[in-house]
Design brief:
Elements: H1 2-27, E1 33-45, E2 48-63, E3 68-79, E4 84-96, E5 103-120, E6 123-125, E7 129-131, E8 134-152, E9 159-170, E10 176-187
Antiparallel strand pairs: 1-2, 1-10, 2-3, 3-4, 4-5, 5-8, 6-7, 8-9, 9-10
Length: 188
């Protein structure tokens, strides 16, 4: 059910992104455009002191104008204990460039799916007690909020960009997960 919601949201986003250039060409030709990028992230969970992850992220998005955009993001990382984290996000990017073209401050709201996979190493203790290695997964899907800033190095809305953003999600068990991302990419 949760995976199908992410797939449906991705399909809707894809359809919007494909139709947007036709709609935006007349009114927002300088402000509309696709972007693609990647970066590194750090994530933590408020309920787990050992659940600190680092990894890499990929993103693709479309700015309809200088205020509204949509974005899909995938991130994957590991903890110091070789536990794995996968994040999928689809949502709106709402902000403004303050009439600069090269700087954009934005807020994010969307649907995020987080999967944590823990591997417990087995072993034998005192020659009598043995524990097998096993894996346990935890998945949560929910509303994701965030803020960020994007700096385009060309001095216009298009070109190579740098970004910094933070995103948070409330888990089903009422704990909070937070991720901080530093990235680079290209806006067409």
């Amino acid at each position: 059910m949760k995976a199908s919601a992410i797939k449906l949201a991705s399909a809707v986003l894809g359809a919007l992104c494909l139709s947007a250039p036709l709609q935006a060409q007349q009114n927002f030709s300088d402000d509309a455009g696709f972007y693609i990028g990647g970066g590194i992230f750090s994530a933590a969970n408020s309920d787990c002191s050992e659940c600190e992850y680092t990894g890499q992220a990929l993103e693709i998005g479309y700015d309809f104008n200088d205020i509204v955009g949509v974005e899909v993001k995938y991130a994957s990382g590991e903890s110091d204990y070789d536990d794995e984290l996968n994040i999928q996000y689809v949502g709106a990017n709402i902000g403004h460039d303050f009439n600069t073209g090269w700087f954009r401050l934005y807020g994010k709201v969307g649907l995020g799916s987080i999967e944590e996979t823990f591997t417990y190493q087995g072993g034998c203790y005192d020659y009598y007690y043995c524990v097998p290695t096993y894996t346990e997964s935890y998945t949560s899907t929910g509303t994701t909020l965030g803020i960020g800033a994007r700096f385009t190095l060309s001095g216009t809305a298009s070109g190579l960009y740098l970004k910094a953003e933070t995103m948070g999600v409330a888990y089903e068990d009422e704990s909070v997960g937070v991720a901080f991302l530093l990235g680079t990419g290209y806006r067409f």
